[in-house]
Amino acid sequence: AAFYLSFKHVEPTGKNTGLFLDVSGSMGRADVSGMNMTAREASACLAMVTARTEQNYQFYGFSHELVTLDISAKQMLKDVIKTITGLRFGSTNCALPFIYALEHKVPIEHFVVYTDNETNSHGSLQPSVALKQYRQKTGINATLTVVAMTANQFSIADPTDPKMLDVVGMSIDTPTIISEFAKGNI
């Protein structure tokens, strides 16, 4: 109950938001430090906060391919986790959210990518390059928040781009950080 009540403390951005959940196998194995939950469970928690806060959002699941997910903000967390646990994909290509949005002409103003940070683009574009191409070809100056559930030396965001942000782990502040960054306040 406290989890659902906490949603009211995050202010909506008013942006078209794409919620991209890494659904690769490693998401079910990676533990989020200090949280007693897998990266898959933590990503579902955080994505649900955004979905229940924002008016315009869409869920996607990705690994070596990307699919739209039939998840609504009205669902219970356990049902969302069940939906994404039922998907079986291969290795993780974090460029797919931007490639998909460009190819399908999806007008996303804020990309939120949830991953365990085990990525392998298999010769595809680097994610930051794919986002820059999306911006250039659509004219949408989209922001990106990458929420990595585990820490390592890899980042898909370009640290020199002020419209890309890496967040590592999960805390009570993470949903507010995502919202404030999308609004340009961070």
Largest beta-sheet details: 6 strands, mixed
Head-to-tail CA distance between termini: 30 Å
The overall pLDDT average reads 86
Oligomeric nature of the chains:
single chain
Which structural traits does this protein have?
186 residues, alpha/beta, 6 strands
Structure explained in plain terms:
- With 186 residues, this protein is an alpha/beta fold.
- It contains 6 helices and 6 strands.
- It has a 6-stranded mixed β-sheet with strand order 3-2-1-4-5-6, with helices on both faces.
Summarize the structure.
The protein has 186 residues and is of the alpha/beta class.
SSE map:
Blueprint: H1 2-5, E1 17-22, H2 39-53, E2 57-62, E3 66-68, H3 77-85, H4 96-103, E4 110-115, H5 127-138, E5 143-148, E6 164-168, H6 174-182
Parallel strand pairs: 1-2, 1-4, 4-5, 5-6
Antiparallel strand pairs: 2-3
Helix pairs in contact: 2-3, 4-5
